[in-house]
Design a protein that fits this description.
Blueprint: E1 39-40, E2 43-44, H1 48-65, H2 73-162, H3 173-178, H4 207-210, H5 212-221, H6 224-227, H7 248-260
Parallel strand pairs: 1-2
Length: 261
């Protein structure tokens, strides 16, 4: 699996490949030394671009081998012409490389601009959502205030309509308490009183009292002194003294018992 490290996997401890020392014989130019600028991680292992560079270097060395010697004026002119043509080819190749780099940079810039535009669109959308939510909250609060003011004005108009003739009526408390249909006993919900609203939350629901399992658990938690009552018999009082006479307190208790009977 992903978390298993086997004996055949050494990627976690792999170092750069070893490059041994070398000695170049005199009079020889190994082709491998042309790749000394390439190191592991920077050109190695070789990709398509590195292979093209190697092929161009080979072509250039082969072209240098075909140059005429500089022993006469005609050979010098021919050599200069060939070098001018190679220089033009090199400049054309470099222009192509520059165009490729510019295209790659343009693609990178396009991706960056597209990513920045997406982030900006997300921020704009979030801001619009927040603004819309705030607007909705303000509108709901405004509607609640209008409804509250409407109910208040409506109650004022109802109270004013009751007193159309200008006669002020005092509150008759006795009449209210004698009439079981009055606001005292049966208040209306339209005046802001809800007697049965969420009344079930006031009901006591106890697991130990409403279920048989709760009663068994409650009984098991009680100590033995509660369920098993131990009554100790009273010890008889000694009514006679050591000398054989009846104690005065015993005679007094007998007299009180007679009086009680």
């Amino acid at each position: 699996t992903f978390g298993t490290q086997t004996d055949y996997r050494d990627g976690e401890a792999q170092t750069d490949p070893y490059s041994p020392e070398y000695v170049v014989p005199s009079g020889s130019v190994p082709e491998l030394l042309m790749l000394a600028s390439l190191t592991w991680g920077r050109g190695l292992p070789a990709g398509l671009a590195e292979v093209e560079i190697i092929e161009r270097a080979r072509e250039k060395r082969a072209w240098e081998a075909t140059l005429p010697p500089m022993d006469s004026a005609s050979n010098i002119a021919k050599r200069r012409k060939m070098m001018d043509e190679m220089e033009r080819k090199e400049w054309a190749f470099r222009e192509q490389e520059i165009e490729k780099l510019q295209e790659i940079r343009l693609e990178v810039f396009k991706k960056l601009l597209q990513r920045r535009e997406e982030k900006q669109n997300e921020l704009d959308g979030k801001r619009l959502d927040d603004h819309w939510q705030n607007h909705q909250k303000a509108e709901e609060e405004k509607i609640k205030k209008i409804q509250h003011d409407f109910a208040l004005m409506l109650r004022k108009l109802i109270a004013k309509r009751k007193n159309m003739m200008g006669k002020l009526e005092r509150r008759d408390i006795i009449k209210e308490y004698t009439n079981f249909a009055s606001q005292t006993y049966a208040p209306l919900s339209r005046i802001g009183y809800f007697p049965d609203n969420h009344s079930e939350r006031y009901v006591v629901k106890n697991f130990y009292l409403n279920t048989f399992a709760g009663l068994c658990e409650l009984e098991a938690s009680l100590p033995d002194s509660v369920t098993q009552v131990k009554i100790k018999a009273p010890k008889p009082k000694h009514t006679t003294a050591k000398t054989g006479y009846v104690k005065r307190s015993a005679r007094l208790e007998v007299e009180l018992a007679l009086v009680h009977q």
